[in-house]
Structures are given as C-alpha cells and as structure tokens.
Amino acid sequence: MQSSEGQKEYDFVIVGSGLGGLACANILASEGFSVVVLEKNHQIGGHLQVYSRGKSIYDTGVHYVGSLDEGENLYQFFKYFGILDHLKVKRMDDDKFDVIRFDDGSEYHYAQGFDRFKETLIGYFPDEKTAIETYCDKIIEICNKFPLYNLRISGENYQMDGDVLGMNTYDYIASLTDNVRLQNVLAGSNLLYAGVQDKTPFYVHALIMKSYLSGSYKFVDGGSQIAIQMSRAIRKNGGEIYKHKKVVSANYNEAGEITGVVLENGEIIKGKQFISNVHPAVTIDIFGADRFLNVYKNRVQGLENSISTFLVHISFHENSFEYLNYNIYQHHIDSVWGGIDYDEETWPQTYFICTPCISKTGKYADSMSIMTYMKSCETDKWADSFSTVAEPGRRDEEYAEFKKLKEGKVIDKLEEVFPGITGKIKAVHSATPLTFRDYIGNRDGSLYGILKNSNSPARTQINTKTRIPNLHLTGQNISMHGILGVTVSAFVTCFSFVDKDKLIQKVKNA
C-alpha cells in the first residue's frame, strides 16, 4: 500500500478474510477488478483457521466438508476458484461418514449417497421404509428450490416462498413417522447447524444433509489450506491481502458514499466499492450506526445468534487410539434437540467427535476434537478480556480453572463412549465462546451466526445490499453458514457487479 497522499484507490475493499471475503476477492480479482482484503488477525480465513499445540494441528471450525464428489456443487466452485487440485482431502467411509450414537450404546450409520443412505436406514427401521424414502425425496425437492446450489440462476425464487422457509425441521420429521428413535436419528447431526427444535427451518437441514450425502471429505492437515489456496489464487489475479489491519470506521462523501475505511493505526484505505464479511451487527458499528435506518439497525442488532461452542482438543500418546474415518454425534439424552438447553449439572449432553486426518496418520489418530454447546453467558465474567495471537491478552487464573473443569466433564463423558481413553491422552486444550468471539469478530462467539427461524423467516433474511450505496455484505449470515453456504453467499454478493449468467456458466465450465 502507498502512503495516503498519492494513495491507490481500489475497485473493491473487502473487510474480513473469512471464506466469504476470500471468495468475493477471488471472483472479483479474476474478473479484472483491483481488490484488497483487510484482516485484523494474525491468520486469514475466519472459521478456516487452524492452530498447533505440541506437534498436533487443530481445526477451529471446519472438521469435514460435503459436496466434493466429482461434479457436485462445491467441487465445481472449488474448480472455478482454481484451488481444487491443490487441496489435500480424504474421502470418509462410504458405509458411515457420520454415526449417530445414543446413551444406550446403539449406533446408526449415515452412508454416503442417497441410495446407500436409505438402504442403511431401512436396515435399522424396516417398518419405516415409506417415511425414510419420503424424507429423502423431500430433501431433494427442497434443495431444488435453491437455484445456486444447483448451479442454476433461474428457478423458483425461494426467498419469497413462505412454505419452504417457514417449514420447521422437527415438525416435518415428526409428521413422517411416530417412531421417536427414527425422528432422532434423522435429526441426529443437528449440531452442524445448532438446531433449535421450535425454530430451525427444514431448508437449513435439507441443504446441509444433501451436501454431506454428496461426498463427505476431511481436509488432510486442516481446513486452513482452503484459505491458503484461495489467497494464492487471489494474489495470482493481482489481488492484495493484508493482515493486522483492523478497520474501525469509514469516511464518506457528500452523497453518502464511503470513500475509504479507517484502520486502527489511522491509515486510510480508499475504494470505490466496499464489502463487509463481518457480522452485520458489527458491520453497523464499524460503518456508523447513524448511516442505517433505525428499523434495519434494530432488526439486525436484535436478531438472535446461534449458540456458541466449547471445543476440546486432545492429543494422544503415540499409537494408542485408532483413527476414525467417520464422525460421531453422541447423544446422552433421548432427544437430539435437548442438548442446546442444557442443564449445567449433566452437561455435556450432546457433542460431536472426530479424529483429524493428518498426513502422517496411519492406523492411529494423532488427536481428537470434541465440540459441544456452550452458552456465551457462561463466560460473561471475562467478557472484558481479549486475547488473540495478533493482540495477546491475559485471562485470569479463574478462567483457566473454569476451562479445566469443563474439559474434565467432557473427558468423563468420553470415557463412557471409549472406556480407557483417559489413559491414552497426552495433552488437552480447549476453546470457549470468548476464543471464537475474539478470532471471528462477532459479539458472542456464535459459530454459525444469525439463527434462522421458521416462525419468522423474513426477519432473518439479510440482503447483500445496504442503505449505504457502495457497501455490500457477504458471509454466513447472508444465505447459509458452512463452506458451501458461504461460497454461495459470495456469488450472490458479486452478482451486483458481474453478469450472473456468465459467472455461473464459468463455474459450470471450470
């Protein structure tokens, strides 16, 4: 960057280097625009960030990905971005990529591909063949109403379709069968979207399920390789990316357009168009609350975020715990929806277990990640503290004790699933809602952003355009969270600047 005197004016200034920001930068740079991405942290990638402790690599947000079989939507998007051939991935087990497990020890496998998935489930529930087939058909029908997920531009406009957006996951599944165990098996991976029984829309469930049934893969050595490969592709197309650049405010001209963003160090970055990949509520703070209509501001700032997470990483003694090429969704309570309103005494009641795939991994796992729900209010007493690699801060002894206590509770539960596992553990690390808040830049550490609500679907729909003429939004709060959802949101944002038919044709031709 030049000094502010003869300073360069970029076509696009993108705030935040999460996948949404990187995808927008990739699309726009490859269309010949001058682009700069500004990241406040030491690492780019948002939820794609990894960290290492000892010699183990840990993912913070992305543990596996769907839709990566040849020709599937994410496969095509990654091809278009020019990163597919550079990613190291491992396909998960065909007969079980996810295992839904209950307290009584019973396990139900999700197999890859709709046919195998149906066949396996009908094996467990032979009397429920019709319900299982209807469920699968409905997933495909709903997903067809989302054109971009099928690399189409036209099609029914789902955003106006109240019947689709207002359909509730729990209610729909319950309408298919009276078999309560089957209902819970079908919704058993709802930690993927922090499912809430009376709120989560079925389209959220459907898009995510279809994605994972269309090719589930782990990233070898962590999901940060997506961010690394995206940044290489951006730079190859002339785009620029800068870390340790925290945007705190913006300058405006008389027409109410942004002329530049102001960094914490006083530097000004000029641009013609601005894209925020930051949570919409935080975007309002950065760009000036007085620039937005009260009704919009109150709605966005009043939207409920999905619950946060407590993430435990354990590393194993060498050759002590076998690598699992599938994930486990463990439920210690009968209802898979109950863990979100947990009772602190019996917490954690539901959690996700995976063993990361490391290139040196053979038969044995290097480590394990366990994610469970945690309300951000549990860490409120330390809310004034802040700590990242870019801005190291200290949290007190009491916080360290709090984490230790919670880690112990998680490991006690794990011992029920894997008797003897405690003796195989070499080290334990954990992350709380505060960790996610500090690194991702939202207010409460929510992992999946704004909670979608089937009771008032229009309230949670956020447009990519804002009242500020040259400020646009992207990221997980725009269409959906997850790698696929965020990628789709980036295309929606870029349709304001690039011919959408031509763009989607490029994706198909990739």
Question: What does this protein structure show overall?
Answer:
- There is one protein chain.
- This protein is an alpha/beta fold.
- Helices cover 31% and strands 19% of the residues.
- The protein contains 15 helices and 18 strands.
- The chain has helices spanning 19-30, 73-81, 114-124, 129-143, 162-165, 169-176, 180-186, 202-213, 224-236, 280-287, 294-302, 397-417, 433-440, 482-494, 500-509; strands at residues 9-15, 35-38, 50-53, 56-59, 89-91, 98-102, 107-110, 217-219, 240-242, 247-252, 258-263, 268-276, 308-316, 327-331, 350-354, 367-374, 425-431, 471-473.
- The strands form four sheets. Strands 1, 2, 9, 10, 11, 12 and 18 form a seven-stranded mixed β-sheet that branches. Strands 7-6-14-15-16-13-17 form a seven-stranded mixed β-sheet. A two-stranded antiparallel ribbon has the order 3-4.
- The longest helix has 21 residues, at 397-417.
- The radius of gyration is 22 Å and the shape is globular.
- InterPro entries: FAD/NAD-bd_sf, Retinol_saturase.
- It comes from Dyadobacter pollutisoli.
Chain-wise SSE layout:
Elements: E1 9-15, H1 19-30, E2 35-38, E3 50-53, E4 56-59, H2 73-81, E5 89-91, E6 98-102, E7 107-110, H3 114-124, H4 129-143, H5 162-165, H6 169-176, H7 180-186, H8 202-213, E8 217-219, H9 224-236, E9 240-242, E10 247-252, E11 258-263, E12 268-276, H10 280-287, H11 294-302, E13 308-316, E14 327-331, E15 350-354, E16 367-374, H12 397-417, E17 425-431, H13 433-440, E18 471-473, H14 482-494, H15 500-509
Helix pairs in contact: 1-9, 1-14, 2-15, 3-4, 4-8
